[in-house]
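Handoff note, outgoing to incoming analyst
You'll be picking up this chain. Sequence as last confirmed:
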Amino acid sequence: TAFHAFMAARPLRVINAGADWPSVVAAARWLAENPDSGVHPRQIPADGVHTKIVERYRRDIADMLPKPADAYSGRDWFETRFGLATKPLRVRLRVLDRSIPGAPTFEDMEVPVAEAAALSIEPANVVVVENEVPFLSLPTIPRTVAVLGNGNAAPALVRALPWARAGELTYWGDIDTWGFVILDRLRAALGDQVKVRSVLMDRTTLLTYRDAWVVEETQSVVEVPWLTSDERLLYDELVANHHGQQVRLEQERIPIASLLMALGA
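Most recent structure output, in case you need it:
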C-alpha cells in the first residue's frame, strides 16, 4: 500500500512519530476514504486520532497519499487539498484616530477579514506593522489605521481590505531578509495600482542601531523584484553578510518616535 511505501522510504519519520504512528495512518486512511468531508482537521473521527495528530503530522499524512495534479500552497494548503474546513482568516486593527469617518466602536479589534473588509472606515493612511509589540506601541496618529501584518500573512490581509488600499499605504518590518521578502510579496499582491512605501527599512536605520543587532536564524534567499533599488541593495548586503553574520534589526528596538518622524506624524 501507499502507507507501506512511505514507511520503507522514510523510516526515520515513522520512528519519530513513535506511538502516534497508528493514529497517523488512521487519519491518512480516513482522509483517503472521505474526500471533501468539510470537517475541521481536529474533528476527523478516526480511531486514535486526537485533536493534535493531524496538526502535528500533516506533512507526513500528505506525503503518504497520492499527490494531486494541482499544487496547493499557502496558509490552508492541507485543508484545501483534502476538502477540510478552514478557519476564517482574521486581522487585527488599531484605529489611531477616533475621528476618522466610519471608525468602529473599538480602538483595538481582531475580526474575520471579511468583516473588516466591510467596514465603511475611511483612513487617509494605513500602516502595516510586522510585529505585535510595535503595533501596540503606536500612539494617536491623525487619520491613520494600523494593521498587524503577522509576517507572511500581510499580503493576503491587506489585499482583502479595500479601504486599506484607498489611501497611503506604508509597511514597517524588521530589517532582515524576511522583512524585505514580506515587503516584496505585499507589493506583488497589490500590483502596480497600489503604491506601498517602506519606513525604517534602510541602511541608515540599520547602522544607527548597530548595538541592537541580533542574528537572523534562517535567512531567505529568493528573488525580490518588487523592491526599490535601495531596498534591493540592502537586501543583497544582508544575504551576503556584508554588515555581519546574518544581521537582523528587530523593529521592537527602534523608538516609536523614529517611526513618527518617518511618517511625518
